[in-house]
């Protein structure tokens, strides 16, 4: 095996290690159905989902006069949390984490998901032992993912050039750029492959392709 390029991988969770695309569509469809709005399927989701999420909600047709973004977010998160254990890992999540560790790299999770719920679901899938740090958003301090990422990079004690961030959306690429770390994208989550490829970042069809390429 070639010597590792990086010393640490920072993983995104939702859509990257966890296959929650269909769950997210299903939960949003329940909000849409309650308001007689057009439902989502995968192509429509991939055409509409983006950051900031507030604009995505507007594109779905919610009427801000009836439902505030904050109310809709709370409703979505409640629905998602109620069904979260119905999501599954991507097919090659565990084997990829094992391969990365075998190549000598450390691994962490950096997620916009709430810290405690993130720890709980990672433990549910028996993945906790693969990670040096598991970092989610802290409601109390209302950190951004970038602020949390900066803290994580500082805790790792590594130069940004020694770190690879792997995610499933263009937001992950933005976070990586803000942190000054390298980025690879996996097109099996919340942004479609064509949009990811247009960014110029390395894009893999799935975790199996990422693992096979050995570009870490
Ligand atoms: Mg994601």
Structural write-up:
- With 216 residues, this protein is of the alpha/beta class.
- The mean pLDDT is 94.
- The chain contains ten helices and eight strands.
- The strands form two sheets. A six-stranded parallel sheet has the order 5-4-1-6-7-8, sandwiched between helices. Strands 2-3 form a two-stranded antiparallel sheet.
- The protein is 45% helix and 16% strand.
- The protein has two domains: 139 residues, HAD superfamily/HAD-like (Rossmann fold), CATH 3.40.50.1000; 66 residues.
- α6 links the parallel β4 and β5.
- α1 packs across α4, α5 packs parallel to α10 and α7 crosses α8.
- The structure holds magnesium ion (MG).
Query: What helical percentage do the residues reach?
Result: 40-55%
From the spread of the alpha carbons, the general shape counts as globular
- How many domains make up the 3D coordinates? 2
Q: Please report the first level of CATH classification, the CATH class of the largest domain.
A: Alpha Beta
Task: List the SSEs and their pairings.
Blueprint: E1 8-11, E2 18-19, H1 21-34, H2 42-48, H3 53-59, H4 69-83, E3 88-89, H5 93-102, E4 106-114, H6 115-124, E5 133-137, H7 145-156, E6 163-167, H8 170-179, E7 182-186, H9 193-198, E8 203-204, H10 207-213
Parallel strand pairs: 1-4, 1-6, 4-5, 6-7, 7-8
Antiparallel strand pairs: 2-3
Helix pairs in contact: 1-4, 5-10, 7-8
The structure holds magnesium ion.
